[in-house]
TrEMBL record:
Top EC class, one word: hydrolase
SUPFAM superfamilies: PLP-dependent transferases
Subcellular location: Cytoplasm
Listed GO biological process terms: 'de novo' NAD+ biosynthetic process from L-tryptophan; anthranilate metabolic process; L-kynurenine catabolic process; L-tryptophan catabolic process to kynurenine; quinolinate biosynthetic process
Database matches in PANTHER family: KYNURENINASE, KYNURENINASE 2
Keyword annotations from UniProtKB, A to Z: Cytoplasm, Hydrolase, Pyridine nucleotide biosynthesis, Pyridoxal phosphate
Protein name: Kynureninase
Residues the record lists as N6-(pyridoxal phosphate)lysine modifications: 287
Listed HAMAP family: Kynureninase
Signal peptide: none
Recorded GO MF terms: kynureninase activity; pyridoxal phosphate binding
Source organism: Periconia macrospinosa
Family: Belongs to the kynureninase family.
Amino acid sequence: MDAKAAIERLQIGQKPEWPSNSESFDFAQSLDNSDHILKTFRSDFIVPTKAQLKRKTINDDAETSKAASGPEDESIYFCGNSLGLQPHAIQEYLSAYLKTWGSIAVGGHFTQISDSPLTAYQDMAGDCAMKMAPIVGASASEVVAMNTLTINLHLMMAAFYKPTPKKHKIMCEWRPFPSDYYAIESQIEWHGLDPSKSMLLVEPDDGYLITTSKILNLIEQEAESLALILLPGIQYYSGQLLDIPTITAHAHKHNITIGWDLAHAAGNVELKLHDWDVDFACWCTYKYMNAGAGAIAGTFVHSKHGNNEHYTGLKGWYGHDKSSRFLMDNKFVPTPGAQGFQCSNPSIVDLTCLSGALSVFEKTSMAELRRKSLLLTAYAEHLLTSIAARNIRDGKFPFEIITPADPTQRGTQLSVLLQEELMEDVSKALEGNGVICDKRKPGIIRVAPVPLYNTFGDVWRFMKIFENAIKSQMVEVTGNVEAQAML
Ligand SMILES: Cc1ncc(COP(=O)(O)O)c(C=O)c1O
């Protein structure tokens, strides 16, 4: 297969032509070895072994200390949409931090140790902003590493949501992640308004997906009443990637401020937040940026909003300009740009983890990662489609993929909606075979092959386990002898 041509087709929303041997392991391996596809950074990550997934004590025993002798001993980790794998760099960066704290103590705030991967603590948030900026298509002064995602959504709404009696609505999607829903609802309440009147949900056209035209029409209809639009770059449940530049431009045409929750988009798809003229955006760093559970989050504020003082009204000493922060004269001089939104001094443990995780991204680019991701996800989709066609039961497919079929409208994630009665047994079979992916009741399995550390071989192995799980469930439910024979 011509991998380069296949990727080019995917980039313009077309499907590749898969060769007749595409369902063989040799074919998956040939893609992993192709010169036209970004080589894996798997060795930069800790991929748990199947034995390690069963760990019960923090001390290693014979099983947990054993290194994988080959990919068959490793787990198949398709859960980077929830928590990215641990980069090896994190241990190195954390040891450097502990050594710095344990030797020069408070001196770490202003002193850079010459051979340390860390900057002085005072510069670490700026350093992380510099490393995150190319990932989201921004300049470093438009990005800040601070707090966590929901808190940052609150801060941005405190800054940008200024309702008036006429213009008071916040537009969001029909099924926001609960934390986004609560944040929007409570911001409305904070202004003494009624969420049932001021929250405008965009419903899907049918099923799970929302067309761009639906969003644009609603903006048009509600332009007089909309104070703010807050949408997800990628919808967490369906995996749909919204058309951020088109929707942003349309909001601005109607003089409406627009922000994006990029929890599932940052580090996953290419973003050009500055060029797209996005007002603000927030993301977490524990999913595709691999900085660890609950890690410090990222926020973008467009440079056109410049000096933030009049936007937040919520000041803290770390929002004060760095050059005079320690004069302690209580005359607030905001740091221009996104970093002026900081309040407290940030956790250096958090910034250390983020800095270590971002060091892996410095070895490549989002453009390269996206190229590989398009093909990895298309390969997963191709194998899933064949499995569905081979396992029709009572005239029905055992599952459907609810993520858009158009590769330009999705990231790595495919959301697979199983027939409800299959969910429990398929989940058990996946777990029993060392597969980690995210399950949401009643029947959604989210499968996210991440280009930094997942391989085409992982996709192939996953599909074997998944198909066997479906077939064995069919045997159980129907006593289907034909299915039994295929196991
Ligand atoms: C879309 C979305 N919004 C908000 C959150 C909540 O993030 P946090 O707990 O870091 O505030 C998540 C967490 O996964 C998410 O996926």
